[in-house]
Amino acid sequence: MIAHDFDYHAPRSLADALALLGQADAAVLGGGTWLVPNMTYGRQRPSAVVDIRRLGLDAIEIAGDIVVGAGVTYRQVLQSEALRAKLPLLAMMAGQVTGGPQIVGQATLGGSACYANPSSDVPACLVALDATLRLASRTGHREVKAADFYTGAFQTTRRPDEMLTHMVFAPPPGGAGCGYHKLKFSTGSWPIVTAACIAVAATDGGPRHRLAVGGANAVPVLLEIDGRDPDEAVAARLPSLISQEWSDEFAGAGYRRQVAPAIASRALRQARGAR
Amino acid sequence: MAIPEQESAANGTGPALSHAGVGTAAWVGRDIPRKDADRFVLGHIDYTADMIAPGTLRVAIVRSSHAHARIGRIDTAAASAAPGVVAVFTGADVRACSAPMPTRVPRERFPGPVDIWCLAADEVLYVGQPIAAVVATSLNDAEAAKSLVEIDYDMLEPVLDAAAALAPGGALARADWPTNVVARDTIRQGDLDRAFQAAFRTVGGEISFGSGTSAPMEPRCYIADWDDRASHLTLHGTLQQPHPTRWMLAQVLGLREAQIRVVAPPAGGTFGLKMVGHPEEALVAILSRELKRPVAFLESREECFLANAREQTHRFEIAADAQGRIIAFRNTIVADVGAIGAGGGWVMAMVTPTVFPTVYDVPNVAVDAVAVTTNKPPWQGIRGYGKETANLVMERAVELIAVELGMSSIEVRRRNLLPKQAFPHRLPSGLNLDSGDYAPALDQLLDLFPLDEWRQRQQDADSNDKRIGIGFAFDLTPEGASFPGSMQAGFETSTVTVDPTGTVRVATSVTSPGGGNETGIAQIVADVFGLLPDDVTIIQGDTDITPFGTGNTSSRSLMFGGAAAVLAARELKSRVAACAATLLQAEPGELVFAQGRICVDADADRSVPFKQAVSTIYTHAYSIAADIELPLQVIKTYRSPNIRHVPDEFGRISAYPSFPYSVHAAAIEIDVATAQVRVLDYAAIHDCGVVVNPGLVEGQFRGAVAMGIGAALWEELLYDESGATRTNRFKSYVLPRAPDLPRIRMGHRVTPSPFQPLGTKGAGESGFGGAMSVITNAIADALGEHGRHVNRVPFKPDRLLPLLAGALS
Amino acid sequence: MSRPSIDLALRLDHRDVVAHVDGRALLIEAIRDLGARSARIGCLTGDCGACTVLLDGQPVKSCLVLAAAADGREVVTLEGSASAIAETVRRAFIAKKGFQCGYCTSGMILVAIDLLEAFATPTEADIRSAISGNLCRCTGYDDIVSAIADAAEQLSAKAATRESPEIF
C-alpha cells in the first residue's frame, strides 16, 4: 500500500529515462525489491518512478570485458554459463542470495549495487572484482571504480540524475581462484559479514589476493594481500580497516570487527583451494 | 460406542499410538485429511481481508511517536480535507460516543484507574498507541492523510525497563497510578531455608528473556458494518474469541448482545495474538456506527510487530541432596509487561510462576513474581502463554544442579520426575496435574535420539572450529485456561443437530486458528453416531449461530468444545436409539451405531440405516417418535472437573485442567569463530493424552517446536532508546525458514487425562517451551563449563561470542 | 476527490482483464481487487511470500511489483494453476497435511510447482531452499517439505510408467 502519489514511467530509450531522471526526485526502479517496499512503508517518496525494464539493460555481454547490464537478475547470472565460467565469484555470490526463487528472479545486481546497503552481497563482490560502474545522465557518461563508488551506508557517488547502466569486469587472469563466504545467522537475516576473494598466482612468493569484506563496515573494505599465508595479514590489518563498523538488530558494536577476519580467511582459503 | 461413557485413567502404552479406553473408535486416532482440504489447496478459503466489500471505508491509524506523553492539541483540519478522506476521529470523538473497553480482568484488580479507550484521549503510554483514526474511501488515501494530522505532545518521563519501573521514587508509567506494579504472586510450599541449609549441593543462576511476538502470517483485520435502520452491528474479524469480542463491543457501544453479530472467518494463524481486546476491534465498530457505513481496518506488518510479550528476568536457586534428589527450588521473577491494554496478554506473567517446578517432585518451593508496567507496547497473547519461560528456567536449574552433583542431567531428571502413580498431583501453585508418565517418555526419547552417536561426534569435533552441544529438556504445558472473573470463562459449548436427512451439524463456541480442530471434532462426533466425518459439518465463529464460549485459546478446542459436542451427540444418539429400538423391536441398550447403520448387537441382519431412523423421527412425531424430544438438537456445555475456582485451604485455585508434556533432545553446532548456532538434530516425545488425529497433533507440535527454536535463537523484538520498536519487518524480526530447521522427529505417548471424557489433553502450545529449553541446554553443553553462564534468551551470536571465548581459554 | 487512476490490461488466470486501478497500487492489491484473492497479503516487504504469483511464468512476490509495471503481462495465481504437476502437488499437500491455517499455502504450492517443473528429483535441501522465500508460522515446514517430496516421487513414478496424468 503506497500512500503518496507518483508518476510511473517505463521509457523505451535511455535518453527518455535520463530526461525523466533529470527531474527532481525521480527514483530508478530495477527489480523493485528495495524501492517498492520502501515506498509502501513511506521511507522513500519519489514523485516519479523510472522503470528500466524496457531499456535493454538486462543483457550479459562477454567480448573481452564482461559487461553486465544493471537490470540483470541473480537468476540470469546463475543461468549464464559463460558468466559462470568467466566470473565464477559472481555466480557463487548469486547462488547464496536468499529470499527464495522469487527474489533471485526479481532482484537485480544493479539495484543492489546502487542501494548500497552495507549488509548486501553485491557491493563487496563488485569491489573484489574491481568492477567499473558505468553511470549515465542527461549531461554525459562516466565510469567509476566500485571501490570509489561507495561513500557510506546507503550512499554512493551516483547523483540523483544518474543511472547505473552497466557493470564492467575485466576477466580475472587465467588460473585465478575465487572464494565467497558469507556469515548469516539464519536464512531470513541479512548477511552479517561477507568476504569475496580473488587469488592470482604470482611468480614471486605465492599468490596475490584481492579481498573485499562486506557487511562489516558502512562500505566494503578492500585488502590486497600477498604471500602464501595471508591469514595473519588479514587478522592484523582487517579490524583496523573497519573504521565505520556496521551494527544492526542482529549484532551490536564490536561483533563484526571481531568475526570479520575469520570470514575473510574462509574466503581466502576457498580462493586458494579453488585455484 | 467409539467413546466410552466413563473414562478411566488408562495406561500409557509405549511408543505406538494407542487409545486404550476409547473402545472401538472408527475415526478417533486416524490421520484423516483436513475438512475442506481441497479449498485450501485451491486457494478458495476466504480470510477476513478477503471479505472487505467494495465501498467499504478504510481506516489508517495515527499512532503515538512518543512512549509517554500527554496529548495536547490535535489538529485534524488538513487531514480532513485531504483527498478521499471521509472523517478523522480522535480520542475525544470516541469518548463522546462510546464507553471504555472492558479489561480482561476486573478493573478493580488494578492499582489505579484503567479507562481504556480505543484512541488515547489524554495520556499516551507507548510508541504506537492509536491516537487518531483517518477514515477514507481507500486505504491509500487514508494512509496518505495520516501525516497531515498534527499532534502536540507534553512529554512525560517514560519508563522503559523493569529496573526503572521498580526504582524507588522513579517515574510512573501511568501518571494516575501510584505504582508501576500491576500484580504480584507468592507461592510457598515447605520450608525453604531449612532445605537449603540441609542441602548437599546448591546452585543458582539468572535467566532473562527478550521480547517476542507471535507474528502469524495473516495480519489482523476487522470489518464493521452498522445497519442504522436495524440498529444492528456486524463485525467480521481475525478473532479467536468472537463471543468475548461481542461482550466487549456491547459495553463499548452500549448495545445489547442481540444487536451485535460477530463473525470470525477462517484465521491465518493466531498463536494468541487475536484474542479479544485490541483497540481496533472497538474502533471500527464505533466508526461504522458514527459514519453509518462499513469500515475496515487491515493491520500492516509493521503494526503487527507492536505486539509485545515475554520480557522477564528470573533469579533462581536449586538444592539437592547427596542422592541427587532435588529438595528445594526458589525463584524470583520480574516481568516487564509493557503498557496495560484491554487485552489479557500481561496475565501471562502471572501464569509463569504457577508452573513450577514443572515435571519434578520437589518438596520445597518458593516463587515470587512481580509484573511491572512500562511504556513499551502491551503484551499480547503468544503461544506458550508464560509457561515456556517457567519450563526453560526449571530445565536450566536441573542442568546446573547436575553439574554440581557430578551426575548426568538425564540421571538427575530420572531421580526427580514425578512417578506415574503420583497423579493427580498438586503443584505448589494449586494446579492439579491430571496425569503423566514422564520417565518412560525419557526412555522412549533415547530410542529416538542417538545420544551415543552424538556424544562421539561431540568428542571428535575440532573444538577450535566447531563445537557440538547436546541438550535435553522436559516441557509441561498447562492447557485450557479458565480464569475466575474473566471472559476467559473456561467453558465451551457445542450444539449438535441431526438434520432430517441424517447429516450432523455441530455449532461450537471454539473457533479454529487453522490447526484443524474442526476435523478432530468431526471425527469424535462421527464415532458417536457411527457415521463418516464427512457426514458431520462443523460451524464455528459466528455469534448468531454458535453458542457462547471463550473461543480458541489455551489449546482448548477438542478438550472443551469437542467434549461438549460429544456430550450433546451422546444425548442425541440415545434419542435416535429409542426410535431405532422401536423399529427393530430391540432394547436401546442392544444397539450398535456403526457404518451408517444401527444394528442389534449380535444380529447383523437386524439393522436400520441411521438416516432412516432419523427420518422416521422427523416424520412420525405423533406415532413412533411421539416420546422423542424434537428437534434432534442438543446444546451442551463442558466444564472441566479439574478446574477449581474455590480456593483450597492455602487459598490456591487451579485455573488449568490439562497437562500435556513432552521431552526433547537436540544437537546443535556452534561455529567457534562467529558463535553462529545451527540445529543439527531434533527429536521429541509428546504426550497429550488420547490423540484424535495424529497428523494434526504432530503438525501442531512441529510448529510449536519450530517456533521455540526461533524464540531461542533468532526472534527478538528490540526497542530503541525512545521506546520505538526497531524490529518492524521480517528482515529484522527473523522467523525460522525451511533451511534453518532440521527435520523434527517425534514420537507419541498416550497417557489419557482421567478428567476429560475422551482422555484428551490440550495440544497446540505444547512443545514450544521444551524447544526453547532444549536449544538453551544444548548451547550451554557446547560451551562446556562456561555453559553455566548462559543467561539470556535468545542466544544471539554477539552475546554468545564472549562466552565462547571464555570456553576456549 | 479522487486520485489519478491508471488503465491496466492484464492476462489474469487465463482471462484478459482491463481495469482502472489506483496509480499507487501494488500488483498484489490490483489482482486481489480483480478477484484473484488466493494471493495473500502478509508483509508487503517481500519477505513472507504469501503474495507469490507467476508473472510471465516466473514466480514473483507481487508486493514488490507496481501494478503499473505489470501492464500487458500475464499473471497466474494458485487459482489459475492447473497443470498435472499442479494437481499432483495439491493432492500431496492434502495427503501430507502440508498446511494448517492455509495463509501461506497459495505461495507454497506455486513455488513447489515451479520447482518441480524445473527439476523432477529435488533433494530435501533443494525443497527447503525452494520454499526459503516463503514463511510458514504453523507447520515448522516438515509437512510442507514432505508434501513436495511426495509430489516429486509421484510424478517420477508416473513418468517412469508413462501413465497419463490424472486431472484434479
From TrEMBL, chain A:
Signal peptide: none annotated. It holds the Pfam family FAD_binding_5. Residues 1-174 form the FAD-binding PCMH-type domain. Keywords: FAD, Flavoprotein, Oxidoreductase. This is FAD-binding PCMH-type domain-containing protein. InterPro entries: CO_DH_flav_C, CO_DH_flav_C_dom_sf, Diverse_Substr_Oxidored, FAD-bd_PCMH, FAD-bd_PCMH-like_sf, FAD-bd_PCMH_sub1, FAD-bd_PCMH_sub2, Mopterin_DH_FAD-bd. GO terms for molecular function: FAD binding; oxidoreductase activity. It comes from the Bacteria.
Automatic annotation (TrEMBL), chain B:
Keywords: Molybdenum, Oxidoreductase. Residues 42-157 form the Aldehyde oxidase/xanthine dehydrogenase a/b hammerhead domain. The keyword Repressor does not apply. GO terms for molecular function: iron ion binding; oxidoreductase activity. SMART domains: Ald_Xan_dh_C. InterPro entries: Ald_Oxase/Xan_DH_a/b, Ald_Oxase/Xan_DH_a/b_sf, Ald_Oxase/xanthine_DH-like, AldOxase/xan_DH_MoCoBD1, AldOxase/xan_DH_MoCoBD2, AldOxase/xan_DH_Mopterin-bd_sf. Coiled coil: none annotated. This is Carbon monoxide dehydrogenase. It comes from Chelatococcus reniformis. The lineage of its organism: Bacteria, Pseudomonadati, Pseudomonadota, Alphaproteobacteria, Hyphomicrobiales.
Automatic annotation (TrEMBL), chain C:
The keyword Iron-sulfur applies. InterPro entries: 2Fe-2S-bd, 2Fe-2S-bd_dom_sf, 2Fe-2S_ferredoxin-like_sf, 2Fe-2S_ferredoxin-type, 2Fe2S_fd_BS, Beta-grasp_dom_sf, Diverse_Oxidoreductases. Keywords: 2Fe-2S, Iron, Iron-sulfur, Metal-binding, Oxidoreductase. GO terms for molecular function: 2 iron, 2 sulfur cluster binding; metal ion binding; oxidoreductase activity. It comes from the Bacteria. Residues 6-81 form the 2Fe-2S ferredoxin-type domain. The keyword Metal-binding applies. Pfam families: Fer2 (PF00111), Fer2_2 (PF01799). This is Carbon monoxide dehydrogenase.
